[in-house]
Amino acid sequence: MGSCTAAVNHPQYIPPLIWGKSGHIQTALYGKMGRVRSPHPYGHRKFITMADGATSTFDLFEPLAEHCVGGCTWEFGAMVNYIKKTYPQTQLVVVGFSLGGNIVCKYLGETQANQEKVLCCVSVCQGYSALRAQETFMQWDQCRRFYNFLMADNMKKIILSHRQALFGDHVKKPQSLEDTDLSRLYTATSLMQIDDNVMRKFHGYNSLKEYYEEESCMRYLHRIYVPLMLVNAADDPLVHESLLNIPKSLSEKRENVMFVLPLHGGHLGFFEGSVLFPEPLTWMDKLVVEYANAICQWERNKSQCSDSEQVEAEVE
């Protein structure tokens, strides 16, 4: 029925003239400045005590007005379950960025129960398979090896700043995690070295291959049945072009999957603007909102069509 459809008519992405076609500049600008002058939604800070005694903190955003059209996943799952329990009548639009895209897709694909009350899912700039990505991160094209070094250095700083809480004498560490592994952390120059020497042992995996396979969303994507939009940029310096075959192949096989691949945008950039200065809202921000609006409209039309068909059947 033609009336029971909704379309996403989003304009083509046109990057800023001077610097917008450089994925490196887009990536660096986002990394240093985030969303330039972006409006921030007003939310309520929520706290959940997790099973291990830690506290998960998140912001719950509620609309200020009526809507115009009506890897480790247990922490994310706890937040989702809290929202479902607190607001049982609401439906969710799930959005993940970069590693967050991997988490939300893996969470939805782990069990069909996780997809209940979920209208749709959007994943932006994720790599889909950590096992495949690790090889490309050691290559120098697109400066991936340099990005790898920078991210590894930042991760080391985060881990070492919390070393007492993570590896102190009062903490029960996995038997496979030895003091020599922690000493290797200081000399690590790549994410893979950190993952192999510390992270996979900390989480109880026997090998780096097992760790990456289990924590990647690739083998869960085909179990997602809600509308799913996967967004990447062709010039993303962190996601090798070979990894884009995963969402491309999935979108060709599954009707609920849409793969969006603009030529430019970098890693989480997608800035717009005439010449030098980026606009407050990016092309990707607008795309996510428009896609969510279209899905909401589609659900609304589908419900109306079902009611009409039921009335017609009763009349006959």
UniProtKB/TrEMBL annotation:
InterPro entries: AB_hydrolase_1, AB_hydrolase_4_CS, AB_hydrolase_4_sf, AB_hydrolase_fold, ABHD4. The active site is at 98 (charge relay system), 236 (charge relay system), 267 (charge relay system). One of its GO terms (cellular component) is sperm flagellum. Its EC number is 3.1.1.23, 3.1.1.6, 3.1.1.79. Residues 70-273 form the AB hydrolase-1 domain. GO terms for molecular function: acetylesterase activity; monoacylglycerol lipase activity. It catalyses: a butanoate ester + H2O = an aliphatic alcohol + butanoate + H(+); an acetyl ester + H2O = an aliphatic alcohol + acetate + H(+); a triacylglycerol + H2O = a diacylglycerol + a fatty acid + H(+); Hydrolyzes glycerol monoesters of long-chain fatty acids. Keywords: Cell membrane, Glycoprotein, Hydrolase, Lipid degradation, Lipid metabolism, Membrane, Serine esterase, Signal-anchor, Transmembrane, Transmembrane helix. It is found in: Cell membrane. One of its GO terms (biological process) is steroid hormone receptor signaling pathway. It is a single-pass type II membrane protein. Belongs to the AB hydrolase superfamily. AB hydrolase 4 family. PANTHER family: ABHYDROLASE DOMAIN-CONTAINING PROTEIN (PTHR10794), MONOACYLGLYCEROL LIPASE ABHD2 (PTHR10794:SF45). This is Monoacylglycerol lipase ABHD2. It comes from Phodopus roborovskii. The gene is Abhd2.
